[in-house]
Request: fold
Amino acid sequence: MTEQALLIGDIGGTNARFALADSTGAGYSSMRTLNCTDFETAEDAIERYLGDVDVVSPGAVCLAVAGPIDEQRVHFTNSSWIIDANELRRRFKTNRVRLLNDFEAIAYAIPVLGAADTLPIGLPAPIQFGDERLTVGALGPGTGLGAVGLKKVNGQFIAIPGEAAHAGFAPETRQQSEVLTLLRERFERVSRERLVSGPGLENLYWALCRLHEEKRAPLTA
Reply:
């Protein structure tokens, strides 16, 4: 039975992934993926995971969450879940609780990526990770669209989380303008996330079929 395990998690709009962190260095074990819709609250999902891995009370909890964090509390962008760090401290009997924006957590992982973890798709980077001038932007489509910046200041990497996905879609071509017009039939406001995400692919497919007057079976992302 593990008494002082370090619980880490990555919680999005569809899946909640949990693992036990290695307290002696980078690494983790006992990873599990749970479906968010199977649980009424995030705390219920955490409790299920801890029971599955035989942990009574974690020594610390660090969760990467898909949504803006306000005073260590998050209301998920693409889920009805709400997570409050104070509630986690009370329920799981630990004072060491930290919530991070999911892409903030990704940003902090970027400097430790090796060549085997990356695939160059353009020109070689003119600035390397050891350079103070380095600035990195990261985007990731999933249930929603994540975005983050990473800047090195005085030898320390600083993550700059944001909600760029919710900026309005700004078309540049006639076809893009036509897509925007169609999507406004479905949504009061069309953000970037309405196009660049799993559901966004479905929206684009629907709009393009309408534009070309093609009757095709709906497809899921």
Remarks:
- The chain has a mean pLDDT of 89.
- The first helix runs from residue 42 to 52.
- The first strand starts at residue 6 and ends at 11.
